[in-house]
Amino acid sequence: MKKKTVEFSSHTGNLALMRNCVRDFLNGYPFSEKERLLMVLGVDEACTNIIRYAYRLRDDQLIALSMEGLRRCVRMRLRDYGEQVMPQELKGRSHDMIKPGGLGLYLIRNAFDEVDYLLKRRGTELVLTKNLE
Question: What is the CATH number of the domain that holds 92?
């Protein structure tokens, strides 16, 4: 079982390093290039949402990303300690509307087979699972 954890501050300048970590972690798994790209973009979008909504653009807050390769799937866990948003309040928009914003949830849900929001006493844990075919 392959496992890696990365912690970084909520500064958007850290997102490129995080994307590289996710990309490196996914090497060796039998995903297509498109699937890999979507997963990297999905985790990036989730981090951007944490920065924007949970931390209200504060750039000095902790984000923890743990990645694990299991027998039947790859699982990414994003942990924040910011404001919680109830999962039923998360609304994307229709992906055929032409305007900026609102497609992040659509992207995340298409990149991963399971998307689970676990509300913690402080903050949220987002669990993203991609099945191995």
Answer: 3.30.565.10
